[in-house]
Amino acid sequence: MDERFFEPPYAFSAHMGMEMVDWREGYARFELALRPEHMNRHDNLHGGVHATLLDTVMGYSGCWTGDPEVRQMALTLSLNVQYLSRPRGHRLIAEGTKTGGGKSTFFAEAQISDETGEVVAKGTGVFRYRRR
Questions:
Q1: Is 124 exposed, middle or buried (CB count within 10 Å of its CB: 0-12, 13-18, 19+)?
Q2: Total domains present in the chain
Q3: Which domain holds residue 104?
Q4: SS3 state of residue 33
Q5: Is the N or the C terminus of the chain less surrounded, counting Cβ atoms within 10 Å?
Q6: How far is CA 120 from the centre of its chain?
Q7: DSSP 9-31
Q8: Rounded to an integer, what distance in angstroms lies between the CA atom of residue 126 and that of residue 59?
Q9: What's the CA gap between 106 and 118, in Å, rounded?
Q10: Within 13 A of 52's CA, how many CA atoms are on the CB side?
Q11: What is the CATH number for 18?
């Protein structure tokens, strides 16, 4: 990834431990090393972690401007999550892709897998661009 486009983590993503790995036109990838605080009371990954990662990578996938000085932001209008499996590994890999849209809204899909290749969740979303 071109370092000019790297964005430092905002407070919540830093708290979660999310790392931006790749970001380009129509695509974003974040990774997350699993920690005990990501687990629910059954010691399984909390569903909110899946939702957060999916929402983040889909939002970024539609906000690429190609200019590191111009930031585009978006608001989530709809987020759908399909929980598929428990992670087998210790690191989550979330990849989001912009699938369409227009001047004010965009659509995206995303998938989370772990480092073993196990697909743990998928999602779709609708986002509205914020005015600059």
A1: middle
A2: 1
A3: 3-129
A4: strand
A5: C
A6: 14
A7: PPHHHHHHTEEEEEEETTEEEEE
A8: 9
A9: 28
A10: 17
A11: 3.10.129.10
Tokens standing for residue 128 = 């509205």
Q: Could you give the CA distance from residue 75 to residue 78 in angstroms, rounded to a whole number?
A: 9
| Residues whose CB is less than 8 angstroms from the CB of residue 89 and which lie 6 or more positions away in sequence, other chains included | 114, 115, 116, 118
**Mean pLDDT, residues 97-114 taken together:** 98
pLDDT digits (tens, 9 = 90+) for 46-75: 999 999 999 999 999 999 999 988 999 999
Displacement of CA 13 from its chain's centroid (Å):
10
**How large a percentage of the chain has pLDDT more than 70?**
98
